[in-house]
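Example 3.2
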Amino acid sequence: MVEFLRLQANRRLLLDGTAHVMGVLNVTPDSFYASSRVLVSDVVDRAARMVAAGVSILDVGGESTRPGAAYVGQEEELERVVPAIGELRCRWDIALSVDTRKAVVAQAAVAAGADMINDVAALGDDPDMAPFCAAAGLPVILMHKKGIPATMQEQPYYEDCPAEVRHFLLERAEYALSAGVAAECIILDPGIGFGKRLEDNVALLNHLDSLVACGYPVLVGLSRKNFIGQLTGRAIDERLAGSLAALLYARLKGAVIFRVHDVVESVDALRVFDALRKGGWANREFE
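Structure, written as tokens:
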């Protein structure tokens, strides 16, 4: 198992059994959850609240990949992402991730201070992405999705979603390794909600431990997604409780990184859950 993620400037993110919360900073006008959208001019204030709450990673994205989202051009994405990462790096040593599927954007973001590449295309959209990740020597998140964001929710179908997702991610991990990406740099994300039906998302979570057993750190993004709305009947703004329930179930199944919109609540939920599960408080006296 991977013991730590190597970041820039000889920094490390330890994977010692601690759960890590990744806070979402969408420098976009159209991400599915409106409260996650932020202007570059406001990104420091939003990030400061997340850092104070105990976030481990800040994930900056300049292109929405929600179902039905349109493609964003390279120059526009650069204009959104690079200044935001530069502002954040000037202020904190916290791990910074760039959410992009374009090698040019990833390269510019890393130059501005990003430590991780979060690629929803699992190095499959841009032929230059894998060589860049290998040369950078930084963690890369490989996510599963079916099709492209614009059409991925148009009647997706699987015979066995957990098995198919696991097979795909291990194939992409092998591709990354063959391109020179180090094994200890690879993180897997099953892509909850990306080209999947309700039953597919539920099955993925039920069998998440089989993906964890493959030996790579597993990240999940569950926050306020449509499947939670389907299970609860709640609108996006009312899905916090459902999101936390799914988050804790994924933690029970072995996920170690959680991409969330609600940092304060997620950090608190994971701290309490892990403390209770480890039994570290069982014999402690409280005043």
